[in-house]
């Protein structure tokens, strides 16, 4: 899959950081979350380490494109009308 689900607290400031297992091995890179409180809500997601490694290898090889995950959701601003 495109994401690893975790219950590790992910708060503003630590998205983009490493998600590691108990042995210190890289599992993934934490994604940003949006919550009403602005902090952790007990669920988080990370881009899997193997996907990150493929993207880095493509970038190092000078390849111009790679497949980005997309949740199938678009957002738009709303107003009172």
Task: Please explain how this structure is put together.
- The longest helix is centred in the C-terminal third of the chain and has 12 residues, at 49-60.
- The protein has one helix and four strands, in the order ββββα.
- The chain is flat and about 50 Å long.
- With 81 residues, it is α+β, with helices and mostly antiparallel strands.
- The chain has a four-stranded antiparallel sheet with strand order 1-4-3-2.
- The chain has one domain (4-60): Trypsin-like serine proteases (Thrombin, subunit H), CATH 2.40.10.10.
- The termini are far apart.
Q: What radius of gyration results from the CA coordinates?
A: 15 Å
Element pattern in H and E: EEEEH
Strand order of the largest sheet: 1-4-3-2
Catalogue the unreliable spans. Answer: none
Largest β sheet strand count, sense and barrel closure: 4 strands, antiparallel
Number of domains: 1
Which structural class fits the helix and strand makeup? alpha+beta
- The amount of helix comes to 10-25%
**Beta strand count:** 4
CATH topology: Thrombin, subunit H
- The number of helical elements comes to 1
What percentage of the residues does DSSP assign to strands (E)?
15-25%
What would the average pLDDT be, to the nearest integer?
A: 83
The CATH architecture classification is: Beta Barrel
Could you give a quick summary of the protein structure above?
The chain is of the alpha+beta class. Helices cover 15% and strands 20% of the residues.
Task: List the SSEs and their pairings.
Layout: E1 4-6, E2 18-20, E3 26-30, E4 44-48, H1 49-60
Antiparallel strand pairs: 1-4, 2-3, 3-4
